[in-house]
Amino acid sequence: MLDSIIQNLFNALQWGSFYSLIALGYTLVYGVLRLINFAHGDIFMVGAYIAYFIAIFLFKGSLSLSGGLTLALVIPLTMILTAMFGVTLERIAYRPLRRKGANRLYVVITALMCGLILENGNLAFLGASRKSFPELIDKVVYNFGMISMTNLKIGVIISSIIVYFILNAIISKTKIGMAMRAISYDKFAIPLMGIPIDTIIVFTFILGSSLAGLAGILFAMSYPILDPFMGAIIGWKAFIAAVVGGIGDIKGAFVGGFLLGIVEILVVAVFPSTFRDLIAFSILLIILVIKPTGLFGVAKSTKI
Amino acid sequence: MKKSYISVILFVVLSFICSSIAFAADDTIKIGFNIPLTGEIPKVGEESKFAGQMLMNEVNAKGGVDVGGKKYKLEFIYEDNESKAESAVAVSLKLIERDQVLAIVGPNSSKQAIPAGQVANDNKTPMISPWSTNPDTTKDRPWVFRAAFIDPFQGPIAVDFAIKTFKAQKAAVLYALSNDYSKNLAEIFQADFNKKKGAGAVVAFESYGDKDQDFSAQLTKIVAAKPDIIFLPNNYNEVALIVKQAHDLGWKGPFMGADAWGNSELMTLCGDDCKGHYFTTHYAAAGAKGETKEFIDKYQKLYGYQPADVAALTWDAINVVLAGIQNAGKLTGNVRKDREAIRNGISAIKEVKGITGNMKFDEQGDPIKCAVVVKINDAGEFEFAESVCP
Fold first, then answer.
1. Fewest 10 Å CB contacts: which of A47, A199, B61, B326?
2. Domain check: are B156 and B142 in the same one?
3. CATH number for the domain including A238?
């Protein structure tokens, strides 16, 4: 029994890592822009596909590098390309609306549409058949009594924790992080202080999208079957995780992601799996009813 | 000027009408195909279409079908149902009313075959689904037939095979809650296994939701229950993920699957993890003999890849229709009468030799035929292991 609980907690940490990484992207953009970027789950999907094409090109192509070297190149390249993709999206879809002073609601609808465009564009250009991500590193299964872990799962959990601390340092220790916090505090006064608001927003999208890209790589390695709609559901759930944690707060997103992972997995461990989403989301609903701002959210103050 | 335009248009329209009358009355047999050429499972539609083209070219090259001393050429009309239930209904109506086909082959998935079967039955047009295994497709519909066996037959075969080959005393099932095919088959397996090995022999019966990718919690539960076999009546893309994750959690035992595994994409997605496992299906491509091998070789030569079960079943479905036409004795040229004659002809079939096995039809229009269990061998081919006949 104890074995099974520890095994499930371990499963939950791995699954929660993906929610956390995606939820961080939601919360960053929301903190700075007060915009719920519903296309974020699909940016994650784009990240996974970018990782796939780079991995195929380096690993299976004429270069045929070793798996480890490929991975070392795939991670930075995918993060850079996904960040560029996110910035392009902001440039094309969100900035024009912001310039025209459109209500935030319209920008949210635009984000939803961008998500659908990405999904269906992928379906149209790459076809309905699923892509199989190559195995870059040899999987090793460690057994401790009844508990099994793989090197990949441990890697996923450690990466997401490291990423959180780096992000936290950027936001609380650097000048640009201070500017991000300042914008979330008062976006009308900040430009008057000589802070280039557009640059800060672009930087925010770079951070959020590169995290989605990293999540895409790790996800593609753990669940090596890619399809155009893979980002939709996990994106929505990560958004819920961000809200439960207190949207706008990066600690909240990080904890909320793991919380959702743990709730989902433990519900299955205890109850029949048929009731998973029913019970899991009822628990989250109760949390929100008790604390509508989320676990770490504050009613109205600086977000991020 | 104007007048000449009008006369040209008139001429074109008239010639169209004449030609369509000529088609209906003359010596062709029109059969419609209601298949998914786009959408979720385009490969399934493509294989059906290729099997149709191959058969038509072969028959027409020999001068056509001989019905009552007269030679008829075959004409096949391929319509795309986009793998959607509502489009399948529209396509059926189009084939029945506009194209005036004598019979319809398809749709392939039960999701589309069940509503399309209603349309065909209401409009008194014979329809035969090559691939649908859900009992509802043909149930209480005298005009609807199928070429595949049904799930209540397939489930117990998997049970028997698991008990015999793996000496299974305990089994676990993981199925997709939102997929009728998977849920239905899982329940049949559970009921049958419990019947044969005592209540509670299915030690874990777990489900997952639409588009789930992580199955670790369910699999942890399953592995902890220590079954002798895990039954996975799921689509091939989910199978690939489940099998890999089960191995990550330390599962080393066998898996058993159903006919939805039998797709050429399974091995590209699943790789080495799926090798050595078994599933029940309609035919085995590797190690096939006789006419089945002939069909596979011809198909592979023409289209460059090995045909999956759906191509073979489409081939058989068309042959069933042709046998029904032979049984009808003669064609009058009156579409209504001919459709009825063909329906009666199909239900009167004593036995048709098919490449997926010989078949005859019961009163529901379901074939009585054998199923095979195949093993995924080390080369990644689906190799014949056992054949089970009713």
1. B61
2. no
3. 1.10.3470
Q: Are residues B267 and B162 in the same domain?
A: yes
Does residue B158 share a domain with residue B78? no
Condensed to tens digits (0 to 9), the pLDDT of residues B364-383 reads: 889 988 899 999 999 888 88
- Report yes or no on B16 lying in a domain: no
Provide mean pLDDT across the span B144-172: 93
How far is the C-alpha of B345 from the C-alpha of B325, rounded, in Å? 6
pLDDT of B25 > 50? The answer is no
Q: Provide the residue range defining the domain that includes A22.
A: 2-124+155-290
pLDDT in tens, B1-13: 455 666 666 565 5
Query: Does residue B364 share a domain with residue B260?
Result: no
Range of the domain at B199: 151-281
CB contact under 8 A, A141 and B247: yes
Closest CA to A7 of A150, A221, A139: A150
Alpha carbons B302 and B312: distance in angstroms, whole number:
15
Q: What is the DSSP letter of B98?
A: I
* Angle in degrees, CA A70, A74, A76, rounded to 5: 130
Give the number of residues written for chain A: 304
Q: What is the pTM of this model?
A: 0.82
Please say whether the beta carbons of B304 and B344 come within 8 A: no
In a domain, B382, yes or no: no
DSSP-based three-state secondary structure for A195: coil
Query: Which chain B residues have any C-beta within 8 angstroms of a chain A C-beta?
Result: 39-43, 177, 206-211, 213-214, 216-218, 220-221, 224, 237, 240-241, 244, 247-250, 265, 268-269, 271
Domain total of chain B: 2
Give the start-end residues of each E strand in A14-164.
131-132, 141-144, 147-150
B74-120: pLDDT as tens digits: 999 999 998 888 999 999 999 999 999 999 998 988 889 999 999 99
> Would residue B115 count as lying in a domain?
yes
Specify the CATH number for the domain of residue B181: 3.40.50.2300
Dihedral angle sign, alpha carbons of residues A185, A190, A193, A196: positive
Show the beta-strand stretches assigned E in B216-323.
Answer: 229-232, 255-257, 278-281
A-chain residue closest to B251, CA distance: A148
Residue A286 lies in a domain: yes
Written as six digits, the tokens of A214 are 């990293």
